[in-house]
Structures are given as structure tokens and as C-alpha cells.
Write a structure and sequence with these properties.
CATH architecture of the largest domain in chain A: 3-Layer(aba) Sandwich
Number of helices of chain B: 13
Structural class of chain A: alpha/beta
Strand order of the largest sheet of chain A: 3-2-1-4-5-6-11-7-10-8-9
Number of strands of chain B: 19
CATH topology of the domain at 197-354 in chain B: Nucleotidyltransferase, domain 5
Largest sheet of chain B: 6 strands, mixed
CATH superfamily of the domain at 197-354 in chain B: ATPase, nucleotide binding domain
Oligomer: heterodimer
Radius of gyration of chain B: 22 Å
Low-confidence stretches of chain A: 7-12, 324-480
Number of helices of chain A: 17
Number of strands of chain A: 13
Helix content of chain A: 25-40%
Shape of chain A: globular
Distance between the termini of chain B: 24 Å
Mean pLDDT of chain A: 66
Radius of gyration of chain A: 23 Å
CATH topology of the largest domain in chain A: Rossmann fold
Shape of chain B: globular
Strand order of the largest sheet of chain B: 11-6-1-2-3-19
Strand content of chain A: 15-25%
């Protein structure tokens, strides 16, 4: 006779072991929030260099990084130190992660522990065969450029290590709370959003739904030639829960009230509810959502009944936005990086082995001018992300513009080792490298480009795999005029068939007006 | 003291608040006593966004109407609009009890209730359910089933619904002024009452009411409403497009649209320029006429195309609209709008305003801007007539106590 084992939580994916790591101070806060909001079915692990902060964490498992390196103090904002600390605690980290099939890494970038250790921890997790989803926050602008540059640097290397990176900008998170709200509330909002996202992604994966969505779907959605992530979660109960849940999901700081949805090419929608959820409710909800998206959008729909939700209904919307389209929206968006294809991850740091960089980026850049670049030196630099305040033609002060990265550090280390200050080419002409061949990164970015604008063309070029010349880039950027809705800027959007009708018709029809 | 025999139609529009005071005569004609209006503020896309300011504008318009008509206003019929208003057709069916074979008034109520037993989004409320046709035991085309023998009575209804709170907001805005709201009517439906006569309704017609904030449409065929809806796009959008496209202020753009705007393309002399006169001492600006017209054209074309798309999707056949397309509302005054509509809808197009038996200041009913406000009066007259008159009016279903549910 065959005995059918029954899992004790019906409807849930049994073998999925989830571990959530909160890294650094911000990570710990997010973790606390996740714990407070209630999340079972996952193990929470706090990792930090600062033993005091670690002691204050509610996480059941704690790993102190860098017992020797920092002696229980923080890193003082030095990612190098954070990296060394994580390296030192290698075994502890590994044993903490051991056995997980899915690892969430929550980290606030910009500081020392988080920025330094995150790529390494993600690396360990991948080596153990876990899928790694990173939720990161970027610092507030007022925290200074240096910090932002550090964060971007860390983000770039994290992107190579994690399967999916969902990135929240603190500046945008602030928009979600009222200006008069206490600062605590503002920070709490950021933590809350992360907590919600973690739970939502976990829930999608855990619930064995009527129509199931798995990690493959999530990665499909986020991997596609796109650069930005739209993410919204909403839960509601009561008579009108379908409508209210969707409303809340669209009101998420990353959604811009659904305006951005019209531009997406694919969309994952996960609808979950208690046993009382009716087909009619799902239909109404989907009808309403369909109004926001265009006819050509590929919709991945999944639904599940989860008794734990009780009378509530929850909607999760996950999507990524084509790079160019994002320009149109001055909205808070998170960035998602197409994860590199699973590649054997190199053993720790010492060996200068090549690390996955999205291959698409590679050809154009190599083609750019240089005879024979040492590939891995370039790779790190050109990973789809590192956007920073554009370098001035002559780098006077080397650290914010670490153009050259030593091969070894290139792998995982966010803090670059600078070998020589090299003039960065001026925006338009990708001049032949004046210095030793493989050193200059031809990333001409006009200084006034916003982050967003700089990002667009890059990834667009990457997506099409076309060689990207400076001229081409310039052309593309010209299209990205910020879209203005004039007097309708603040009013409720009128979206019909995925078109935002408040944007002037001639603009959408591409009629030139002068 | 409010006089009871006067009917007041009030439209809180996006560009203007307009109150029409009229007298319904027993012979079905209407005499307009006065039209009061005030520029509207606090209304966007047909919906109130600034309650207090909108309230002031309503007060102004009503005071103006009282002054002009010398009538004290105690209650109004209110017109609502907005992109949230939707519609669908549904069939209700009731079985006549065994013990009686004759269909009576009560069955009519039941069949209407049955038709409303559909799921609409929870925040929405029914605004109208308009009778289309009866079927008695499957027999088609029954005009009046009361008194007929039958086992089942079925009826097709056209049901219009919208977000309850937004409709309530309009009502409250009026109630704050201590004025009763007799009924709320969907704007384009009110317009259709005056721009179409009974004959046209029977022939079939599409009424497009393009106002400042919204573009509403109603399709009549065989004397009954087949389809209706509303887009949150209107003349304001045209102005906004001009303002953004030509980089001039909104007020200037509005003036330019009214004075120089046209929908036709290719009619301007190549390179013809319009000089904007300066008002504040700054140098005037020159604008190419063709550019201005292109911007307007794009928006109007898109709006009509969206309406067409919706009509096609609803299955309402455009081929049977013998009376063509009737354009009304402020935007219908744009030059060349009829040609464009003709091109898109493929039907003869007329720019119309109030028709039929009206008397009073001609300036009121010869302006398409007032179609819906006057339409309210006509609607009210039909509703309160008490007697079921042949033709269309019998077909408007008596309304469920929608309004009582509201407040």
C-alpha cells in the first residue's frame, strides 16, 4: 500500500524551506518588521557586525559578522570592512543558510555591513543551491553622494550574485507617507513595504494554488529585457474586498496608481483569498485590472485559496517595465535586474575567476574601442547597473569613481581597489582608452542625466544586443521627454485600454509638434 | 415660496454650472423661463474634486437662474457624468403565478428587479434601468404586456450604474444649499431627450455629448436605449494638449481653442501663423495654425475612435442607426468636428442642439452647451407626466427608488 504523506499545512508547498536574512542595520529593522507583521513558515536570520544592534533584534538566529575584524562594533560605513567581516564569518553564515531552498536577503545599501556583506552572503547562498531574492533599499539622497555611490556599487555586485534583486529607493518611499508624518513613520513605511514584499513573494511561491505560479514565472516576469520592477500588494476584507484589495495594490509606492501598468509587457497577478472568495470577485477584480493594461500585455494569472487569509482577499501584482517606457513615468519605481543565468559561482574571493555578468552587455562594450580587454575587469563595471553621479572629466578624488577594479575584487567585492586614476572620456566620444588598455570604462554619461535617464538607453541597448555607440545613445535619450499631464497631473488618471488619456493625444500618436 | 409647477435642471459641468428653469405645459411642450450659469471650478472630468468651491459655483448659478426667471428654486433635477459610469444590457424574467394568468403592474416591478440581479462592482449603484423590450412567453416585440395572458414575462433592460459615492457627492453639493434633488440623470441620456425626437429614436441614432470634462454617448435603436457610456475625456483635454504642445498657459490655450481652433487638417494655408496678442506686456507669440489644428485633431479623433471601439465591442450595430450621429455639447462647436465624426463613425453627422417644441430665449436652446441641462427638464417632464404616453416615454422604465437609497 502506498501511504500518502500529509503535510500539516494543507495547501502549502511542503518542501520549500525559506530563510530570510536581514543584513546590517536596515536589514535588521526590516526583519523586525517582518516578524512583527507575522510571518511563519520561514526562518529569520539577522546578520550584522554591530553586536548591540544584533542583540536588539527579534530574529531567532543571529550571526555576528567579523568578530575579529570589527570586534563587535559597526563598520563605520566602510564596505571593505563589511566585506572582510562577512568573509571572516563565512562558516557561520553558511551553516545558518544551510538547507534553505529559497533565501531572501533584506539589506539597506550604502552603509558598511550591508553593502559589503550582501554580495558575499548572496554568493554563499547560491553556492548552497538556494535561489536568492534580494530586497534592497537605496539610501536617501540627503545621506550624501558618497553613500549613494557605495550603494550603487554594492547593488551592481549584488545583482551578479542574486537571482532577483528588487530595489526600493528610500527617497520614493518617503513619498508614500505624508510630509508631516514623523520620521519614524517614514522609516517604518519603508520597512513595511519590504516586509510586505517579502511576504507576498513568499506567499506566491508557497501557496499551492488552483492556478499556480512558481519561481519560474516570477523570474520570467522580472528577467525579461526590462529594467524596472513594479510591485504592489493589497489586502482587504469586507463587502468590497476585491475592489479594495486592488485599489491598495495599485496605491503601493511602486505602482503610481496603475499608471505604469499600461506600459508593461508582462504582468504576474496573484489573487489569494480565504475559502469564501468567489469566482465573481476574482472576475470583477481582473476586469478592473484589465482596464489598466494594454491588449498586448501578457498576463500570468495565478490564484490560490489560503485558509489563513480568513475573510480577506489579497492581490499581488508583479511586473517589470521596459527600460524606455520608464522614462515616461517620473514615478517611484524599483529596479530589477535580470539575473544572470545560473553559473557556477566561484569559490570565495581569492581566485580571479569570471563571474556572471549579463552577457548581453558584453559585446557592445568590447566592441567599443578596445583591442583586447581583460574581460573580467570590465565585467564588473558594466553590469547593468552602476549608475552614479556622472564622473567629471578629470577625477580628482578617486573614490567615488572607481573606474578600475582589480580582478580579484571584481567578483564580489563592492569596494573597489583603485590602481590608477584614469581620465574618464567625455560624454559623447568614446575615445580610445588613453591609459593601459583595459582600464577605462566607456560609460559616457552626461553629467546632467538623471539616474533614470541614464539607465534607460543602457539596458535598452543591452536588450537588443546592438552595439551601443555614444551617438546612438544620445539619440535614444532625446525621446525621453518627461511626460507631462498638465492640469491633469494630480487628478485621477483616465486609463482606457491601457492608454493614459491624460497624456496629450498627439504625444501618444507620436505626432511632431513644434 | 418654491413653485411646484416649475422644473429646474441643474448641470454641474466641468466648465460651467448651468441651471435651467422651465415650465412643462400639459401638451408636452416646454417653456424656458430662464437660464442661469456660472463658470465652474472644482470640477474635473465631470466629477467634483473640490466640494466647497463647486458648492459656491452651484449657488451662483442657481441665484443667477432665480434672478433671470423670477422663480424661487426649491428642487432640481441633477445631471451626473464621469468616466466611472458604465452600462450593460440584461434580461430579467419572472414567472406569473399559477392562479392568475394575466400580467399586471406588480410583475413589471418584479421583472425589473430581476434584471438588476447582476453583479456590479460593490461601490457602484444603479442609476437607471431603462426598458428596452418585453417578451411574453418568448413572444417578441410586446409593447405593453399589462393585461396580456402569459406564463413568463421577460424584459430587456439597459442598466446604467456608477460609483455611489461620486454620485452622492454631486447630490450633497446641491443639498448643502437647502435645495432638494428630485432625481439624478445620466448626462448624455438627458441630452438625448432633447436632441432626438421620437422619430429619430425609432430610426436609431447615436448621440455624442462632448463636454468639457467628459464625452458621453447614447445609442438609440427601435426607440430604446441600446448602449451608453462615458469617457473621462473632453474639451479640457484639448485645451491641455494645446497648452502642453504649444507651451502656452492654459487660459491662453482655451481662448485660442475657442477663437481659432479647428479639427480639419490641411485646410490652413501652409505656414499660416496665428499671432497671439500679448496681454501682459510680453511679446506676442506666433503659432502655426496647422500645428494647433493637428493637436486638436489628434485628441478629437482619438476620443471618437475610443467611442467607436466601445460601441463595436458592445455589439451595438452601427448599421441600423437611420438618424445618424448627433453631436452635441460644447466641443461640438469646434469647426470641422462633424467631418471627422463622419469619417470615423461612417454615418451622417449633425451638430445639434435642443430641438422640438420649446419656447423661451432662443439663445438658450440654440447652444449645444445647454443640451443636457434642458434635457433634464424634458426628462423630468416625461417622468412626472404620470400618464404613459405612446412612443419613447413609455419605454423609460419607472425608476426604482434609487434616490431614496442614496441619502
Amino acid at each position: 500500500m502506498i501511504a500518502l504523506p500529509r503535510s500539516n499545512t494543507p495547501g502549502l508547498h511542503p518542501e520549500l524551506v525559506i530563510k530570510i536574512i536581514g543584513l546590517g542595520g536596515a536589514g535588521a529593522n526590516a526583519l523586525d518588521r517582518i516578524q512583527l507583521d507575522g510571518f511563519d513558515g520561514a526562518e529569520l536570520i539577522a546578520m550584522n557586525t554591530d553586536s548591540q544592534s544584533l542583540a536588539g533584534s527579534v530574529a531567532p538566529v543571529k550571526v555576528q559578522l567579523g568578530r575579529q575584524t570589527t570586534r563587535g562594533l559597526g563598520t563605520g560605513g566602510d564596505p571593505e570592512l563589511g566585506y572582510a567581516a562577512a568573509e571572516e564569518a563565512c562558516d557561520e553564515v553558511r551553516s545558518a543558510i544551510d538547507g534553505a531552498s529559497l533565501v531572501f536577503v533584506c539589506v539597506g545599501l550604502g552603509g558598511g555591513s550591508g553593502s559589503g556583506a550582501a554580495p558575499l552572503v548572496a554568493n554563499y547562498a547560491r553556492q548552497q543551491g538556494a535561489l536568492v531574492v534580494a530586497f534592497v533599499t537605496l539610501p536617501f539622497t540627503f545621506e550624501g553622494r558618497r553613500r549613494l555611490a557605495q550603494a550603487e556599487e554594492a547593488l551592481a555586485s549584488l545583482r551578479q550574485q542574486a537571482d532577483v534583486v528588487i530595489c526600493f529607493e528610500n527617497d520614493k518611499m518617503g513619498d508614500a507617507v505624508s510630509p508631516r508624518a514623523g520620521i519614524q513613520e517614514a522609516f517604518a513605511a519603508a520597512d513595511h513595504t519590504i516586509s510586505q514584499s517579502v511576504r507576498a513573494v513568499a506567499a506566491i511561491l508557497q501557496r499551492r494554488g488552483l492556478i499556480h505560479a512558481g519561481l519560474d514565472e516570477i523570474t520570467t516576469i522580472l528577467r525579461a529585457q526590462n529594467a524596472r520592477c513594479l510591485f504592489g500588494v493589497g489586502e482587504a476584507d469586507g463587502d468590497n474586498r476585491a475592489h479594495a484589495a486592488l485599489e491598495r495594490a495599485l496605491r503601493n509606492p511602486l505602482m503610481d496608481r496603475g499608471r505604469l501598468l499600461s506600459d508593461v509587457s508582462q504582468l504576474l497577478v496573484h489573487v489569494a483569498g480565504g475559502p469564501t472568495m468567489t469566482l465573481n470577485e476574482v472576475t470583477l477584480l481582473m476586469e478592473e485590472l484589465n482596464r489598466h493594461i494594454s491588449d498586448t500585455t501578457r498576463l500570468l494569472f495565478s490564484t490560490a485559496v489560503d485558509p489563513r487569509l480568513g475573510n480577506k482577499m489579497s492581490v499581488t501584482i508583479l511586473s517589470s517595465l521596459a527600460a524606455g517606457a520608464a522614462e515616461a513615468a517620473p514615478a517611484p519605481v524599483a529596479r530589477v535586474v535580470p539575473a544572470p543565468a545560473p553559473i557556477p559561482v566561484p569559490a570565495p574571493v581569492s581566485a580571479p575567476v569570471s563571474v556572471a555578468a549579463p552577457p548581453v552587455i558584453e559585446p557592445p562594450l568590447i566592441q567599443a574601442e578596445e583591442p583586447a580587454p581583460a574581460p573580467m575587469v570590465r565585467r564588473v563595471r558594466t553590469a547593468p547597473a552602476p549608475i552614479r553621479p556622472a564622473p567629471a572629466p578629470i577625477p580628482v578624488e578617486p573614490e567615488p569613481e572607481p573606474e578600475i577594479i582589480a580582478p580579484a575584487a571584481a567578483l564580489v567585492r563592492p569596494a573597489p581597489i583603485i590602481t590608477a586614476p584614469v581620465p574618464v572620456p567625455v560624454p559623447v566620444a568614446p575615445a580610445p582608452a588613453p591609459a593601459p588598455a583595459p582600464t577605462v570604462a566607456p560609460v559616457p554619461e552626461p553629467a546632467d542625466e538623471g539616474k533614470v535617464a541614464a539607465k534607460g538607453p543602457k539596458t535598452a541597448a543591452a536588450a537588443t544586443g546592438k552595439p551601443r555607440t555614444a551617438r546612438e545613445e544620445k539619440q535614444e535619450q532625446m525621446q525621453f521627454e518627461p511626460v507631462n499631464r498638465g492640469r491633469f497631473e494630480k487628478s485621477e488618471p483616465t486609463i482606457v485600454d491601457g492608454q493614459d488619456l491624460d497624456i496629450p493625444a498627439f504625444m501618444r500618436m507620436n505626432v511632431r509638434v513644434k | 415660496m418654491p413653485q411646484d409647477d416649475f422644473i429646474v435642471g441643474l448641470e454641474i459641468g466641468t466648465s460651467k454650472v448651468c441651471a435651467v428653469v422651465a415650465e412643462g405645459r400639459p401638451d408636452g411642450t416646454i417653456k424656458i423661463n430662464g437660464v442661469g450659469q456660472a463658470p465652474s471650478r472644482g470640477v474635473r472630468k465631470g466629477e467634483i474634486v473640490d466640494f466647497e468651491t463647486a458648492g459656491k459655483c452651484v449657488r451662483e448659478a442657481l441665484a443667477d437662474a432665480e434672478e433671470k426667471s423670477d422663480v424661487m428654486i426649491g428642487s432640481v433635477y441633477l445631471c451626473v457624468s464621469g468616466g466611472h459610469i458604465e452600462s450593460f444590457n440584461n434580461r430579467g424574467s419572472v414567472n406569473i403565478p399559477e392562479e392568475r394568468e394575466e400580467i399586471c403592474e406588480d410583475d413589471f416591478e418584479d421583472v425589473q428587479a430581476a434584471a438588476r440581479e447582476v453583479s456590479i462592482p460593490a461601490p457602484n449603484q444603479f442609476l437607471h434601468s431603462i426598458l428596452q423590450h418585453y417578451y411574453v412567453d418568448g413572444q417578441d416585440g410586446v409593447l405593453n404586456p399589462i393585461g396580456m395572458m402569459g406564463r413568463t414575462l421577460e424584459a430587456d433592460f439597459h442598466i446604467i450604474h456608477g460609483v455611489g459615492t461620486r454620485i452622492k457627492n454631486s447630490i450633497r453639493c446641491v443639498k448643502e444649499l437647502d435645495i432638494e434633488v428630485e432625481d439624478v440623470v445620466f448626462g448624455p441620456l438627458a441630452s438625448a431627450q432633447v436632441v432626438l425626437d421620437v422619430n429619430q429614436k425609432n430610426l436609431g441614432a447615436l448621440v455624442v455629448d462632448m463636454g468639457a470634462g467628459t464625452t458621453g454617448y447614447v445609442v438609440y435603436a427601435d426607440g430604446a436605449v441600446k448602449h451608453s457610456g462615458c469617457l473621462g475625456v473632453g474639451g479640457d483635454h484639448i485645451t491641455n494638449d494645446i497648452s502642453l504642445g504649444l507651451r502656452i498657459p492654459m487660459a491662453r490655450a482655451e481662448k485660442l481653442k475657442l477663437e481659432e481652433g479647428a479639427v480639419r487638417l490641411g485646410r490652413a494655408v501652409p505656414g499660416e501663423r496665428i499671432v497671439l496678442k500679448d496681454e501682459t506686456g510680453f511679446a506676442g507669440k506666433e503659432i502655426e495654425r496647422e500645428m494647433l489644428n493637428t493637436i486638436i485633431h489628434c485628441r478629437v479623433r482619438e476620443t471618437f475612435e475610443l467611442v467607436k471601439k466601445r460601441l463595436d465591442a458592445s455589439g451595438a450595430s452601427m448599421d441600423f442607426l437611420g438618424a445618424g450621429v448627433q453631436l452635441t455639447g460644447g466641443c461640438s462647436m469646434l469647426s470641422g468636428v462633424d467631418d471627422l465624426a463622419q469619417e470615423i463613425f461612417g454615418l451622417p453627422v449633425h451638430v445639434t442642439c435642443v430641438k422640438g417644441t420649446m419656447s423661451g430665449p432662443t439663445s438658450a436652446f440654440e447652444n449645444p452647451q445647454y443640451s443636457s441641462a434642458i434635457g433634464l427638464v424634458k426628462y423630468a417632464q416625461a417622468m412626472t407626466a404620470g400618464v404613459r404616453r405612446p412612443g419613447f416615454f413609455r419605454r423609460i422604465a419607472r425608476r426604482l427608488p434609487f434616490f431614496n437609497n442614496l441619502l
